[in-house]
């Protein structure tokens, strides 16, 4: 899992834990600076209003993720 987005995030709001297959952006901590968007190798980071229809399920995944049991960074 590439962590380029983690490296550029100024508020450490991108999380993972061992076993995760993706990184998760904490919507309560994200400041919408968009620094992560251009460096994401999967082109998977969007402003919430711009998430493509075929990727809408990822909005709920990020809201429902257990951030308390993980740490900022690419820890998977």
Characterization of this structure:
The chain has two helices and three strands; from the N terminus they run H-E-E-H-E. By secondary structure, it is of the alpha+beta class. It has one domain: 2-Layer Sandwich (Alpha-Beta Plaits), CATH 3.30.70.20. The protein has a three-stranded antiparallel β-sheet. Strand 1 and strand 2 form a beta hairpin. The chain is globular, with a radius of gyration of 11 Å. It starts with a helix and ends with a strand. The mean pLDDT is about 95.
What's the short version?
By secondary structure, the protein is of the alpha+beta class. Helices cover about 15% and strands about 10% of the residues.
What's the layout of helices and strands?
Blueprint: H1 4-8, E1 14-16, E2 24-25, H2 57-64, E3 71-72
Antiparallel strand pairs: 1-2, 1-3
Supply the key terms:
Alpha-Beta Plaits, three-stranded antiparallel beta sheet, 3 strands, 17% helix, 9% strand
The total tally of domains equals 1
Strand content: 5-15%
Q: Tell me the name of the CATH class.
A: Alpha Beta
* Class from secondary-structure proportions: alpha+beta
Question: Which value, in Å, is the CA radius of gyration?
Answer: 11 Å
The percent of residues in helical segments reads: 10-25%
Number of strands: 3
Major β-sheet, in short? Answer: 3 strands, antiparallel
Per CATH, what is the topology?
Alpha-Beta Plaits
List the strand order in the largest sheet. 2-1-3
Number of helices: 2
Which overall shape is indicated by the principal axes computed on the Cα atoms?
A: globular
Distance between the termini: 8 Å
Label the CATH architecture: 2-Layer Sandwich
| Weakly predicted, low-confidence segments | none
Average per-residue pLDDT, rounded, comes to 94
Following the backbone from N to C, one meets helices and strands in this order, namely: HEEHE
């Amino acid at each position: 899992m590439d962590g380029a987005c983690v490296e550029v995030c100024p508020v450490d709001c991108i999380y993972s834990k061992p076993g995760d297959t993706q990184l998760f952006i904490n919507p309560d901590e994200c400041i919408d600076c968009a620094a992560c968007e251009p460096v994401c190798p999967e082109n998977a980071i969007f402003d919430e209003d711009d998430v493509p229809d075929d990727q809408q399920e990822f909005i709920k995944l990020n809201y429902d993720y257990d951030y308390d049991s993980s740490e900022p960074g690419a820890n998977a």
